[in-house]
Amino acid sequence: MLQNLHNIPTTTINNNRPSINKIKKNYGRLIKRLKFKFKSTNTILRKTDKSKVFHLGKVDDYTKKSDEYMEKTKAYKCLGTIDPLPDLIRRTNKYLLDLRLAKWISQKQYEQLCIQNSNDVELAHLYYLLKAHKPGTPLRPIVAGLKHPTIKISKLLDELLRPLFDQMASKTMITSGFELLKHLQEWSKSNLRQNTLFCTIDVTDLYTMVPQVEGVLSLKSMMDHMKLKQIRGLRTETIIRLSRFVMQNNYFSYNGQYYHQIRGGAMGSPLTLTMANCYMFFYEQQIIKQINNSGGLYFRYIDDIFIAINWPARHLFKQIDRWNHFDENIKLSENIGSSADFLDLHIENQYGQLFTTVYQKPSYEPYYLPYNSVHPLHMKKNIIFTMLLRAIRYFSTFQTY
């Protein structure tokens, strides 16, 4: 029924309004029946990570995985049923007022960041996306805090710091498979051999495992590295003070309980990504130097690392084991071979020749958009254009295209 409603063109909807209204009335009953079915069978429906696919599972399994994740990371402290929101609002405003009185921030900045109406804020809540593309379907925690008391501070800091990080890490950070492909094609001209290895590395639970104190210090190291005293009128010391306050005050609700995040950052907070990226940047410098000195290729996209190197596999495994001892908070899990999948790019070393195609995760859902849907025509055309452009860029031979 929902599929049929989605597929009906706008003209049909306008010409057949009574029948559509009837379907809409039935829609409410359908939702109620689905909710009852889920509850009676102890079933839960959740969106999966990095795809538009939904996952059906048992509530008990979901709860068990959540408990295991919290126990493994030691990142969350349960506060029971006492709502921390009123106290957090008070402390946030007091902290900002103290900074204003000490002239660390201006009156305009104070008014921009403070909470003027308590009805405009609410505590964040935790939910999980299931990683259906990984064995065991692990969970990715998302702390949604669009109205969290510190969200305005977090957004401001991210606006100030993210462009600096992008500038600092421009030589080793990528944002798409096409960027990697361009670097890989150039590198392969003089470095690709029959025994060249491709290695993809996943950084386990990066956002959660980055320690808060050291994470904030990595932001300071970045500003020191770039020899900055202030950014857009805000002193670097003020930025560090505000960053520390944001990281130390991540509170959320989950399953009727309240929690305080005492390790890492909330994945829904804008500052968390920049801080995690910055922490990883300083962690990976020894690795990058080692790879570059060996004539290899190293790139990272947040918590995914790609390496192309002319080392024996045994030596590469040994080095990754050594890198895993650089920092107790960073754990690397690797895949090594003559082929690799990174972001949406599939790469193969075929007897010293580079072969590439588009990569689709196992959870990939081929359904995009019905042509007779109500979406604008240019959007439908752009989907086809984008897919064809990506195929032209990624496929290394006309035959595979």
UniProtKB/TrEMBL annotation:
Coiled coil: none
UniProt-listed InterPro entries: DNA/RNA_pol_sf, HTH_animal, RT_dom
Annotated ranges, domain Reverse transcriptase: 112-358
A Pfam family matched in the record: HTH_animal
Top-level taxon of the source organism: Eukaryota
Protein name: Reverse transcriptase domain-containing protein
Annotated organism of origin: Rotaria socialis
